[in-house]
Every structure is written in structure tokens, then in C-alpha cells.
Design a protein that fits this description.
- The chain has one domain (2-117).
- Strands 1-2-3-4 form a four-stranded antiparallel β-sheet, with helices on one face.
- The chain has helices at 39-50, 70-73, 95-105, and strands at residues 2-3, 10-18, 21-28, 31-36, 54-55, 109-111, 119-122.
- With 123 residues, it is of the alpha+beta class.
């Protein structure tokens, strides 16, 4: 069980296999999101290379992600998978909301816990 960076919502994340692929399952209420599990290593490497705090961003798939955010990177054609880490069409967004707290829990990143505009950096 994890909480969004502001601590306002609780959700569950766990690893699983889907169609032979290692995935991270994110259950928020009655909604289930899937992310490619390699996002943890890839995001950590990107943040390490970035070397400083980065805005998390976080928005639904249908909305444009703010440039320079973790959310924008998580859907960019220049990231290591060449696009979305989110695997469930229509529910591929919110990467910058749900993945950072997992990385913090795993000891891979530090995140801020403000009411809005949270940031993260690699540890």
C-alpha cells in the first residue's frame, strides 16, 4: 500500500506477469493500471543522469504532459522503450503520480510531499 505524494490517496502496487512481460500493477479504487516494470530501472537511470530535482507532473493519458516532467518522460518517444511505460490504453497516464512513491519505498528516489507540484530525484 502506498500514498500519492501529498498523502491524499492510498493505492496498491505489486509486480506480476502479463503476457510474459514483467509488469507493475497499480490498483486505485476500482481502476487497475499497468506499467512496464523496467520503468523503475530506466527512471532511476534517467534521474541519476539528470542529477537534480525534477517535477513529477502527472496527468491522464488524454492530457498533454508538461515538458521536462517525469510524466512527460514516461510517455516520450525518446525514453528507453520509445513511448508509454503505461500498458493499458486509455489508462497509460499518471506515471508521474503513482511510480515515484514506489521508487521512494524501494529506496531508489527521494520525493517531496507537498500539496501540489511535487518533485523527485534519484538516491
Amino acid at each position: 500500500m502506498l500514498k500519492t505524494p501529498p498523502g491524499s490517496s492510498e493505492y496498491k502496487m505489486y509486480r506480476d506477469q502479463k503476457d510474459g512481460k514483467d509488469v507493475i500493477v497499480c490498483v486505485v479504487g476500482s481502476t487497475t493500471l499497468l506499467y512496464d516494470a523496467r520503468c523503475l530501472d530506466d527512471l532511476h537511470a534517467m534521474l541519476t543522469a539528470h542529477g537534480d530535482w525534477m517535477d513529477m507532473g502527472g496527468c491522464d493519458e488524454q492530457k498533454e504532459a508538461k515538458e521536462g516532467t517525469v510524466e512527460a518522460w514516461g510517455r516520450s518517444d525518446t525514453n528507453p522503450v520509445g513511448g508509454w511505460y503505461g500498458l493499458k490504453k486509455g489508462l497509460r497516464g499518471r506515471f508521474g503520480v503513482y511510480i515515484p512513491p514506489l521508487m521512494e519505498e524501494l529506496g531508489l528516489a527521494e520525493i517531496t510531499h507537498d500539496a501540489r507540484n511535487n518533485r523527485m530525484k534519484a538516491i
